Amino acid sequence: MLSAAHAALVELGMLSSSDPLPPFWARMSGNLVLMTYPEGPKFYLVKIGIRTRLDREYRGLSIAHAAMPRHVPEPLGLATYDSFQVLVARGIAHRQFVMDGETLGVFERGMDAFVATSLARFQAAPADSTVNVQDAVFEASGIFDWPGWRRYWDDAQRLIATLPRILQHGDLAVNNMGVADDELVFFDWEDFGQVDLMGFDLAVALLSINSFDLAQLHARLKEDSLEAGLVKRCCGRLDKSPDEFFMLLPAYLSLFIKVKSAGGYDQAVSARAVAALREWVRISGAG
Amino acid sequence: MANEPHPVDVTHDLRGWFYRAIAPSASCAVLEVGDAHLGTWFTNVSHVDNLAQAQPDTADGRRFDVVVIHQSLGGCPSLLGTFESASRMLRQGGTLVLSGANRLRPAGSRVSRPADIPSATGWGYRTAATRAGFADVSLYVAHPPDVAPLYAIDSRSRSARAFFGTELAARKLPAWSPRKWVLAALIATNLMPYLQPGFIVVGRKC
After folding, report:
1. What is the CATH number of domain A2-90?
2. Which end of chain A has fewer CB atoms at under 10 Å, N or C?
3. Which ipTM did the prediction report?
4. Which residues in chain A have Cβ-Cβ distances shorter than 8 Å to B159?
5. Which architecture does CATH list for A95-284?
6. Is the pTM of this model over 0.80?
């Protein structure tokens, strides 16, 4: 795998073929990520596809970097070496995003910008194949016995039909965000474009900062909070109401469960979404 | 998914991933000493417990592409002996990977470390590997230091400073925290990797 990373860096002109692989640290989470540090200020992310193909991520990075160059790593190449897909992107110096009093404003500005940019620049093409929302809701209903799902879907699909198809990041949890120069940076675009239901990314981000505690998020949406403000402004752009966003949460959660299950992620990730979905049914009385 | 054989689902069992990352291919000839969970990643694995008594298959001159020694001295009396025994089993240009404990971080009093686990300082591992004839010796630390680490960090300063610096920033310690100052100094001087609980040593037989 390291030889594949070396070959990619050589082909892209970051190294000469006689140079060894620069110092790196590696992270394994199904795919192998190397952060490599050649001499000088620049550094590079080299991702090696083991669990998944990396075409989605390369496309996501390409589209998103073009739209938000300071907020998304620049993709430099995608090729196959030693039977592995290897993606190289320019690193962005950042610190891990941690939600606290200091970063509240950073998160709010960053998410507002992300939502506005995605609406303007991430429109799905007719040929884009995305996860079917009805299938996802149906499958989720079977996980915890939700007899009222059909009634829910009848209402939800009318609302969904009025929304633009916008390709979503797919995993916009806070652990995939960093902070650079007091701005949010968005990483890990592996799931880009699997979902085209507008609001999905915002829902995942808000659930993530509330530890997927649906009752807590519900309470925050009812008061004058960061979450309520973000939802209100997002809905304003779509000519929808915050109540409609809340109404779509089961659809968002069902898509999240389906994407995570299909992607082979740890079951604990999906389990948190299932618990949130169950809580939504309880709160809304839509059982 | 890459087009190489994975006998079991690597999505759910990531143990041993760094050994595969270092190795040239999934089908190379690997000798495993200790329980490195290599079956997840390789298709051609031989296993011995006693490296000291192992002999290369001289009938066909077969030696291994990679020798992985996981938390074991392989029955050898010393770390140098383990490296020398591994060298005997490797082909020219083959790769040695050994993981062991950091002598500067003794196991807690309630946890007894088995006698067969290698224990040395980072510098000690490097010296022993070099004395046994290995070249391009590099040192990595696993984080967290358990059976399925998420990260492996090259101990060279650019990568180690970047990793531990980011980790320190994420801790959100108060600016006046003495702990923060000490950690920042250890990172700046690149001592941080040498104080981690364990090491992975990689070398090339030359």
Report:
1. 3.30.200.20
2. C
3. 0.85
4. 22-25, 35-37
5. Alpha-Beta Complex (3.90)
6. yes
